Amino acid sequence: MLVLARHVNDSIVIGENVEIVVVEIKGDQVKLGVKAPKDVKVFRGEIYAEIQKENVAAAGSALPPDLDRFMKKR
Fold first, then answer.
1. In this predicted structure, what is the pLDDT of residue 41?
2. What average pLDDT does the chain have?
3. How far is CA 29 from CA 19, 33, 48, in A?
4. What is the CB neighbour count within 10 angstroms for residue 57?
5. Considering only CA atoms, which of 26, 59, 4, 30 is closest in space to residue 13?
6. pLDDT tens-digit profile of 1-15?
7. Cα dihedral 35→41→45→49 (10° resolution)
8. Most exposed of 17, 21, 30, 72 (fewest Cβ within 10 Å)?
9. pTM for the full model?
10. According to the model, what pLDDT value does residue 58 have?
11. What residues pair up with 36 in beta bridges, in sequence order?
């Protein structure tokens, strides 16, 4: 893990098109701004972990038994 010290209005750049800006520091909370193209998905860590958990659950779920029959009719 790379650890950087930054001040308010300082930024870091990831790749060629993602910039993280320190917007505010208040007590033990830091507010960050993310500048990225609209096609780049940005999630809070806990939300991303939940999405991954849901994807694993969905991938493991059984398909309806009559799905083959339904697909052959199309």
1. 94
2. 90
3. 19, 13, 20
4. 9
5. 4
6. 999 999 999 999 999
7. 180
8. 72
9. 0.70
10. 83
11. none
Q: CB neighbours of 6 closer than 8 A, spacing ≥ 6? A: 12, 22
Residue whose entry in the numeric block shows the structure tokens 């930054």: 6
- 43 Cβ contact list (under 8 Å, min separation 6): 51
Decide if pLDDT at 55 tops 80.
yes
Residues 19-55: b if buried by 16+ CB within 10 A, e if exposed: ebebeeeeeeeeeeeeeeeeeeeeeeeeeeeeeeeee
Average pLDDT rounded to a whole number, residues 39-43: 95
- Domain range summary for the chain, segments of one domain joined by +: 1-61
Q: Which of 3, 12, 2 is nearest to 32 (CA)?
A: 12
In this structure, which long-range contacts are made by residues 55-63, counting pairs with CB atoms below 8 Å and at least 24 apart in sequence?
none
